[in-house]
Amino acid sequence: MESTSIATIRVGDLAELWKKNPNLAVIDVRTPGEFDSVHAVGARLEPLHDLNAEKLAAAHSSQDSPVYILCKSGVRATQAAERLLAAGLSKPVVVEGGTDAWIAAGLEVERKGRKVIPLDRQMRATAGVFIFLGALLALTINPLFAWIPLLMGCGLFLSGITGICPMTSVIARMPWNQGSRQTCCSKK
Question: Are residues 97 and 125 in the same domain?
């Protein structure tokens, strides 16, 4: 699926629609820990790394009813929208700028957990540690440790090109990224 066919909406426009219709389907595809740190009031958790697109599409089967998708800034929401389109949902709508834009606009948020570092920053920090340690070990212990930063660099390059990052999927499942496990489909 091409992301050009995915509709978008600005946070202010979504907030206005939501005031008129509080039953809108608004999901947040960040990790449970990120969601617990801060989320738009009324958004339902549906983590991207656990997203069951077919189940979600079936739960929102009305073809006239869009599903609005939030993440931190829009990248994961676009990935979720692509999965939902492939599963048969005709109107996934990515919220431009995600939760960051929602907060910046001064819209209502809920904070119920400890602050968790956003997933993209966790991934960069982890990659940086592996690259640093691999280089340090290659310089001080054995040159074969140079494979560590080489492999990390290749992984980051492939992630940048494909938009798929296995390391991010692993980090998303770490205990500190887990929080409330209430999803939109489990509430129905």
Answer: no
Number of domains forming the structure of the chain: 2
- DSSP collapsed to 3 states, the chain: CCHHHCEEECHHHHHHHHHHCCCCEEEECCCHHHHHHCEECCCEECCHHHCCHHHHHHHCCCCCCCEEEECCCCHHHHHHHHHHHHCCCCCEEEECCHHHHHHHCCCCEECCCCCCCCHHHHHHHHHHHHHHHHHHHHHHCCHHHHHHHHHHHHHHHHHHHHCCCHHHHHHHCCHHHCCCCCECCCCC
Q: In this structure, which amino acid lies at residue 176? A: W
Q: Is the dihedral of CA 38, 41, 47, 48 positive or negative?
A: negative
Residue 185 inside a domain? The answer is: no
pTM of the model: 0.69
How do residues 43-86 score in pLDDT, each as one tens digit? 999 888 888 888 877 777 665 688 899 998 878 898 889 888 88
The residue that leads in pLDDT, 57 or 186, is: 57
Task: Please tell me whether residues 73 and 150 are part of one structural domain.
Answer: no
Q: Of the candidates 92, 115, 138, which is a domain's last residue? A: 115
**Pair 108, 49 in one domain:** yes
Are 125 and 109 in a shared domain? no
